[in-house]
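User: Hi! I'm working on a homework problem where we have to compare a predicted structure to a textbook description. Could you give me the structure for the chain below?
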Amino acid sequence: MSSDKADLSALRLDRSPAARPPRRSLWGTLATLVAVAGVFLAGYLAWNRLIAPPVEVELVAAQMRSPAEARSVLSGSGYVVAQRKAAVASKATGQLVALSVREGDAVKRGDVLARLEDDDIRAMLAEAEAQRALGEAEFQQAKKNLERQQRLASGNVGAQFDLELAEVAHRRAEAALDMAKARTRAIQVALENTVIRAPFDGTVLTKNADVGEIVAPMAAGVSARAAVVTLADLGSLEVEADVSESNIQKIALGAPCEVRLDAYPTVSYAGYVTSIIPTADRSKGTVMVKIGFRQYDNRVLPEMSAKVTFLKDDAGGNATPLPAVLTVPTAAIANRAGQTVVLMVEDQRIIERAVVTGSVIGNYTEIRSGLQSGDRVVERATSELAVGTKVEAKPARGR
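Assistant: Happy to help. Predicted structure tokens:
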């Protein structure tokens, strides 16, 4: 009986406080939720990093730009051209025996540039001078004979027939002397034509022939050269730029410009519109505009490519050009966590680069530090492009 009671008491529920299971605290619940959220976040980041398709972004390079672009009305490109330029050739045909200059030499008008072989012409000149001397002697003899016959005729001693013969002989001798002088002069000119001289003050740009080659005025032969050297007056340099005919109304004579050479993108030169050629190129739909330099140095050379910025005439045509500054599109700059940054791509992931900005030039902003020319940044720094976002980079349209 007692054992039965013991068995029944073992089946009784223990309702004492110590036997109750502990209740989960509020902090524990929050910790669990945070842990679950962390797992989901980690999973999302892993999915975003490993599985999510990359975001397409366009990259642009940081470039040097002129502050003058802020008041630009139009821009164009062209080439530096010497307005006074000549391919110096010979009037005579012959073998080149001397070349006195080479590329880069400065010459004055009349300086000897080259000489042609002239032995045959000198021989002809010697013969012509001998013929002239003979003609001079015959003329003097005919003159004396005429004077004698005139004296005899005045004294009624000589015959009229002899006087007439003396007059005819005198005129023939005089004509023969004039012919000899003309021939001598012609050969002297031919001899002078074997000497090639500079037609104006300038600089030798190219050497077109070498000693030993045949030089001809029209280069009739297969191996003949027409020009010996190409000469240009480097004091007459201008930029010739093609401007779309639909924009030509934005340009006026004398309007200020800024010229930058592709060879020296950080150097600018003040210029102005010197002429607008009064005809259009129908194949290109452009009009040629010539831009003169107000001042330039020896870095400016013929045939260099140049970019021209046509400016509003609100700062005076003689305004000194400001040095170029490094810029990126304004849309590429973002403010994140109180810091000014641009977005870049490294290993197909977005990274941030802190920069210090300066003035605004049109749609671009100056970068004073943090980037170098040529560094490529994301063209538009949108909020979806967080650090670590997988991207597929491509060049910006039109660049």
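For your comparison, note the following. The longest helix spans residues 119-154. The helical segments are 2-10, 26-50, 119-154, 160-193. Good luck with the assignment!
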